[in-house]
Design the sequence.
């Protein structure tokens, strides 16, 4: 089987980590070789960058600095983990990728969709996911889930307006890249969301 690079996207509170973890477990039970990873992070250098980006104390960070750090983390993660796993015929399931930067920095930080895309095109060498699954949840539900978390990182602590802009950014992502994105209703039960996600992945594998 050829390798696939699959990303899970969605606003804060959409359940990406929970869904990705359970999906990977089930796919492994079905006999697939699966690599579960995340952005920013996934490997040592990128995790160090993640700590800088998300540290709640780094309130002085400029929006462009943030975007560039995400792109740097992304590049290292691709080269060190995603490319080797995909080339070895594995399924790479990644929480977040370039679409998150387009939504969070392009719209959330008002840096511009195309400007952030340009930064990332240099970083990713035109490598987009084979499949992106967007976990769709209404803003109130997502923000309510965030509020229940014990620890809030620097982005969790942003204003409601920021999170509204992020959702607008994701709508633009869905419009521009609809050919590689499937949408899952993340307001359903966890079991239903996981099953819907697995069905989409299996369909892609069998294309």
Sequence:
């Amino acid at each position: 089987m050829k390798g696939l690079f699959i990303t899970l996207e969605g606003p804060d509170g959409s359940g990406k980590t929970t869904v990705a973890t359970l999906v990977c477990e089930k796919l492994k039970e079905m006999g697939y070789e699966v690599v579960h990873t995340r952005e920013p992070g996934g490997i040592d250098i990128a995790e160090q960058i993640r700590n800088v980006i998300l540290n709640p104390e780094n309130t002085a960070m400029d929006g462009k600095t943030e975007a560039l750090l995400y792109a740097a983390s992304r590049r290292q993660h691709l080269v060190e983990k995603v490319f080797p796993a995909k080339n070895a015929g594995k399924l790479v399931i990644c929480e977040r990728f370039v679409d998150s930067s387009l939504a969070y920095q392009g719209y959330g930080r008002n840096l511009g969709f195309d400007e952030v895309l340009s930064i990332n095109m240099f970083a990713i060498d035109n490598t987009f996911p084979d499949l992106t699954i967007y976990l769709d949840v209404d803003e109130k539900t997502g923000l309510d889930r965030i509020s229940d978390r014990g620890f809030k990182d620097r982005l969790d602590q942003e204003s409601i307006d920021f999170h509204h802009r992020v959702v607008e950014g994701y709508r633009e992502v869905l419009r521009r890249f609809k050919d590689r994105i499937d949408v899952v209703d993340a307001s359903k039960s966890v079991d239903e969301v996981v099953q819907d996600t697995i069905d989409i992945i299996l369909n892609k594998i069998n294309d």
